[in-house]
Structure formats: structure tokens, C-alpha cells
Amino acid sequence: MKYLCLFFLVLLVVGCKSSQINTSLEELNEKHTVLLSNCIDNAICNIELIPKSNLLIKEDEFKNTYIEFEIGNKTIIKYQLKKNELPNTADSHYSEIIYLEIDNYNKSLYLKNEDLQQVKMIYGRLCYCKGSSGYFKVNKGSLELILSKNKLSLNANFNVENIPQIVSQINEKISLQK
């Protein structure tokens, strides 16, 4: 009986594992996508966390900016607004994407204007919009990012000159738990 009680006590101690709290994005091993409820009509918005990646911002021979990902040691945050396409309508696709590359161990980050390029903040407008489609570096605005207790709080307010935008502000709290 004494051994049986000891066995149950050991089983209780081993079986009661507290849930871990992510204090860094380093603990994410795969893409984590969150569908957002705060979006415009006729569109879908989401945030995707892409771990163990680096964001490369490149230019082609025509000075058009484009992005690439590579395996790395940071996390990329991708915010996307994608409008529903019109049925039976060619070239009705429309998306806006914001990318950020952050250090996995940053608990908080406050950036303004040109400092936004410390996280390679880039805005993409992808549509059949002559002269205003593509990727553009963000140099005007503010960004507040706070990581605490399985949550990532992202607050951004930004403007890209001479480019029409639907998304100019992001205020989201993202759960890092699955």
C-alpha cells in the first residue's frame, strides 16, 4: 500500500506539467497564422508569423523592389489584407501586405519614421494598378511591438507617400499558443 501511494504521488508530480509561456519567438517552430476579425467588408485579413527566417529586400534592373525569404534566425511578421475577387472579372485581385523582420528575443520595440527600417518594414500593394503596385519601404509612421505571456501586441500607424492605401494602421494582439 505504501508503494502504491508513492507511485500515485510520483505519477501526480510527473503528470502535472504547467503550460509553458513563450517569452520569445524563438520557440515557434512552424508558421503560425491568425485570421483577424477586424477587416474591411469583402476582404480577409490575417497575420502570419514565419519563424527562423530572414527578409531580403531586393531591386530588379528596373528599380522595382521585391522581397525574398531565406532561412535565418529572426521571425517575419506578415500582415495581409486580401479583397475577394469579383466573379467573372479579369484582374480583380487586390492585396495589401506589410512585412516586418524582428529579433526573436526583443520583448518590446518602439520605432518611428526612418527607424522603421531597423525591422525592414515594407508595404506591398499587389493589384492591377498601374504605377502604384509593388513593394515600398516604409519610412513614415510608428511601430510598437510588445511580446509578453504568449501574446504579441502589434500597433503600427504608417503612410507610404504617393501610394493609395487601405491599410495604414494595425492594432492587433496575437496569441502565440496553438
* Computed structural class: mainly beta
CA distance, first residue to last residue:
41 Å
Strand content: over 45%
Largest sheet: 7 strands, antiparallel
What does the overall shape look like?
globular
Structural features, described:
The protein has 178 residues and is mainly β. The protein has one domain. The chain has 1 helix and 11 strands; from the N terminus they run αβββββββββββ. The protein has one helix at residues 2-15; strands at residues 32-36, 43-59, 65-71, 74-83, 94-103, 108-112, 122-127, 134-137, 141-148, 151-158, 169-175. Strands 1, 2, 3, 4, 5, 7 and 8 form a 7-stranded antiparallel beta sheet that branches. A 4-stranded antiparallel beta sheet has the order 6-9-10-11, with no helix packed on it. The longest helix has 14 residues, at 2-15. The chain is globular. The two termini are 41 Å apart.
Entry summary:
This protein has 178 residues and is mainly beta. Helix content is 8%, strand content 49%.
Write the SSE topology:
Layout: H1 2-15, E1 32-36, E2 43-59, E3 65-71, E4 74-83, E5 94-103, E6 108-112, E7 122-127, E8 134-137, E9 141-148, E10 151-158, E11 169-175
Antiparallel strand pairs: 1-2, 2-3, 2-4, 4-5, 5-7, 6-9, 7-8, 9-10, 10-11
